[in-house]
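Take a minute with the sequence and fold tokens given here and flag any structure token that looks odd. Thanks in advance.
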Amino acid sequence: MIQVGQKQELEIVKEVDFGVYLAPSVSRADDRVLLPRKQVPEGSRIGDRLTVFVYLDSDDRKIATVREPKLVMGQVAELTVAQTNRFGAFLDWGLEKDLLLPFRQQRGKVEQGRKVLVSLYVDKSGRLCATMNVYKNLRNDSPYHTGDQVTGRVYEQSVRFGAFVAVDNRYSGLIPAKELYGNVELGTDISARVIRVLEDGRLDLGIREKAYLQIDKDAEAILRLLDGHGGTLPFSDKASPEVIRRKTGMSKNEFKRAVGRLLKEGKIRIGEQSICRI
């Protein structure tokens, strides 16, 4: 059976003026697709087998091409937005007809010239479309181990679970909600550390250093925060975890460790409801 969105080897079963018809075999000539004349390799004849990609033309009819698409079914790829209109965005995927990314399948900013991470799916009308919900097509067999540094694209965010990351635009990763600090925006590329490889191969990620490395950076961040507020912060290490995270991007424990370092070095003074720089 001819599969839309896939590369496959098909047999030439009929030749016409405007191209050749391809089918899985001569015996299945009723299930066939046209390869336009301009794409038929020179010297091809009935019975030859060709590797082609099958998609839909402007009239939503199956059409074959010998061109190499930038994305096939089951994969994830970064494609450039060629244009946008009231239907959604159209992506350059290396074929004559651009690929539609419907509004309902978009995540974050989608603008002309911008690169977006997408997968293929077949909509209810049988058309090939793109989606930025790439979770099910990301692989769980990464070569990374705990402690490794990785880079990836944030493609989904959840208050409950955290930020979902496509590591190397290929592997499934997650920054758990408890590991999220600062402003991690949807659609941006981030650098992270593998903090755990789950049994199923997915990666749990952290965007902060190990505690003994992070404490210096946190202390410096607090000093910058103090300088930006005239030398005084209107809260102390006794504030709620929610206030500390909102104001500093740190957990309460991380904040207390960094404040303790600064206090020991004689750089700050702590009051009941404030911290002042000395």
Q: What stands out?
A: The longest helix spans residues 211-228. The two ends are 76 Å apart (CA to CA). The mean pLDDT is 90.
